[in-house]
Every structure is written in C-alpha cells, then in structure tokens.
Design a protein that fits this description.
Layout (H helix, E strand, L loop, with lengths): L1 E4 L2 E5 L7 H9 L6 E5 L4 E7 L2 E7 L5 H9 L4 H14 L7 E8 L4 E9 L5 E2 L1 H5 L6 H17 L2 E3 L7 E5 L5 E5 L5 E3 L5 H7 L7 H15 L3 H33 L1
Antiparallel strand pairs: 1-2, 2-6, 3-4, 4-5, 5-7, 6-7, 8-10, 9-12, 10-11
Amino acid sequence: YKNKIMSINVNYNPKFSNLSDILNEIFVNFNFKGKILVNGQRNAIKLFEVEGITLNIKSFKRPNLINKIVYRYFRKSKARRSFEFASKLMEMQIGTPQPVAFFENYDFVGLKESYYACEHLENVFEFREIVQNEAFENRDFIIRKFTQFTFEMHEKGIEFLDHSPGNTLIHKNADGSYSFFLVDLNRMQFHETIDFKTRMKNLSKITHKKDMIEVMSNEYAKLSNGDETTIFETMWGLTADFQYRFHRKKRIKKKLKFWKK
C-alpha cells in the first residue's frame, strides 16, 4: 500500500496496513512520543505499543544538503532500503525482525527525515556478547550456529555489508536451539553467487579473536567442503587488515579532534 501526499511517502507491509493511520500519527510525532531504546548521535530508536504489538521505529539522522538531494533523486533512503531489504530477507527465509513500514518526509530541497518500523524482538542478545564474554554459555555451539547462519546467507547470494557483531540478534528458543536475526539492514547486496574471498571478507568484521576465527573456519570448512587451513588463513588475514584500517581510522579521528580544540 502506498500513499503519497505532497511531500510524504509511506509504504506499509500489507499485514499491517490496518495500522496505517496510527503509524502515520506516530511518524509525524516521533520526537514527542514513544519509549527511547537508543539515542545515538546519528540515529534514534524508540518503542511504541500499537494494537498489542511492540514496534521498533528507527529515526535516521537528518541528511546534509548534498544527501538531501541524493536521497530524493539518485538513491533510495536508508529507511526505504531497510524496509525493502527486510522484506526480501523474509522472502528468502533469512531471519530479521518483521518489517512494518517506512516513512519519508521531503521538503523543497530533498529528503528531510525518514523512519523505518519493524516488530520489536524480545529476549534477544547481540552476537557482540559472544565476542566479549569468553565464558558465555554454549559459546562454541553458538559460534558454530552463527557460522551456519552466515553460510546459508552466502549460499543464497546475500552479502550483508554491515555484518558486524552488533548487527546480529540471537534468541534462545525453548528447545535449546538458537535463532538469528539481522538488523541495521540498509547496506546489502544480492548476487547469483558469492566468490570465496567475498565470503571471507564478509566475516572479517565479526571478531578479532583468533580462537573464534578458528571455530568459524572449522565450521565453514565442514559446510563448504573447503580446506580448513586456507579458510582460516584467508579469514584471519582479512580480519587483520580490517582491524588495522579500523584502528588507523580511529587514531586519525582522535588527532583531528585534538587539533580542532
């Protein structure tokens, strides 16, 4: 369902089209209502209770002048991409919170503000906790299941460009199994097939810990019938490259802040 009124563009998941009026009101009054979940420098996330459903709504940072024009005429907004990629992941049976709607508001220059709404997941934890806590319950098992989840994505041609420890949520099911859900979806690519190096690079942001990469390499080798040594050495090398670039960027930012003072 699409509705275009002057400078507003809204798109709903058909399953939630009955909530359109309520959602429109929430989007327009986002700054004054809802329960804050994340209040970051770039984006904000709030929770809203609607018809017995907890909605997780992300407000993206207002774009600068150039990006206002880019998101109006040349590229889809982050909110729209999040909605469309989530819908595609659901079709491909890859876990992600159920997409509900996206909202775009334009002024005479371009995109002014945008929001993405999905169902909120309860009782989940980030994969980051597995990285940080070496004593985490069933840690090795979860790492292997996460690797299986990533391998399934790769086999389906999905390249999640922000595949990092904070962007996979994990839920422990009643039977002891684990379900995985991708979040922060606005940077994804879909391919017919994904080559080996791209697959390994896609895992390079997950962890800097050698023991975890050893487990991931072992599991990925089993799944792909690949050579475990080659997989480990490639993944470890790409991880080292990413860590070098990441920390170099942080050092440069720190210096720039110092000189601005």
